[in-house]
């Protein structure tokens, strides 16, 4: 129900940007607002501040969303759907993503209510998750202590943890750095 108005509004903005001069600026602002590039940067800053004051518990807590999920849901998936379907695809992806996150973190009734949104998000985020895993594996080639072979193998293997779209990039990152993802953020 929410997707139809979002798709309609995005289509109107897209058509107006194609037809009218300088409306592309509005489209650019909308696209920049829908691509969540700030969340990963905020996470990195929070972890860096916690490490600077030797607060390892806070650093671990802040690192949880950074294990690949943020880069996938915030940037790669958004860019994928924008390239594939334009501003309409981007708007629908972000709407589904936000609804899925909101309902999956609520109480049991919210989780049941949001079952369809969560499954839809899983379906539309799986290909971008694979792409994110590949990008992380490629990036590991530029990190001196990273295990590129392990990262590539993990990127090409279906993840064990569910939901796959959220765990795939994190699994690749953990393998590239030779970390157990759960141990990296949850001390024993």
Write the layout of secondary structure elements.
Blueprint: H1 3-19, H2 24-34, H3 38-52, H4 56-63, H5 69-104, H6 108-113, H7 115-140, H8 148-155, H9 164-176, H10 181-185
Keywords:
disordered C terminus, 77% helix, mainly alpha, 10 helices, single chain, globular
Provide structural commentary.
The protein has 188 residues and is an all-alpha fold. It has one domain (3-185). The protein has ten helices and no strands. It has helices at residues 3-19, 24-34, 38-52, 56-63, 69-104, 108-113, 115-140, 148-155, 164-176, 181-185. α5 (69-104) runs antiparallel to α7. It is globular, with a radius of gyration of 18 Å. It starts with a helix and ends with a helix. Mean pLDDT is 78; it is low at 184-188.
- Low-pLDDT runs: 184-188
Total count of helical runs of at least 4 residues: 10
- What's the SSE pattern? HHHHHHHHHH
| Backbone CA Rg | 18 Å
DSSP helix fraction: over 70%
Q: In percent, how much strand structure appears in the residues? A: under 5%
What average pLDDT do the residues reach? 78
Quantity of strands, as a count: 0
* Amino-to-carboxy terminus distance: 44 Å
Anisotropy-based shape = globular
Label the structural class. Answer: mainly alpha
Profile the largest sheet.
none
Number of domains: 1
């Amino acid at each position: 129900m929410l997707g139809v108005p979002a798709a309609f509004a995005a289509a109107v903005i897209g058509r107006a940007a194609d037809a009218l001069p300088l409306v592309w600026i509005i489209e650019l602002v909308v696209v920049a607002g829908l691509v969540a590039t700030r969340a990963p940067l905020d996470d990195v800053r929070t972890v860096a501040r916690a490490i600077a004051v030797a607060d390892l518990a806070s650093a671990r807590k802040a690192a949880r969303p950074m294990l690949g999920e943020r880069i996938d849901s915030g940037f790669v998936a958004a860019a994928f759907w924008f390239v594939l379907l334009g501003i309409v695809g981007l708007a629908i992806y972000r709407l589904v993503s936000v609804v899925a996150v909101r309902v999956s973190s609520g109480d049991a009734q919210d989780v049941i209510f949001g079952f369809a949104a969560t499954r839809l998000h899983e379906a539309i985020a799986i290909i971008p998750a694979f792409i994110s895993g590949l990008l992380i594996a490629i990036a590991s080639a530029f990190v001196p202590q990273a295990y590129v072979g392990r990262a590539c193998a993990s990127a090409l293997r279906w993840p064990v943890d569910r939901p796959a779209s959220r765990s795939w990039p994190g699994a690749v990152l953990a393998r590239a750095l030779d970390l157990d993802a759960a141990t990296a953020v949850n001390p024993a």
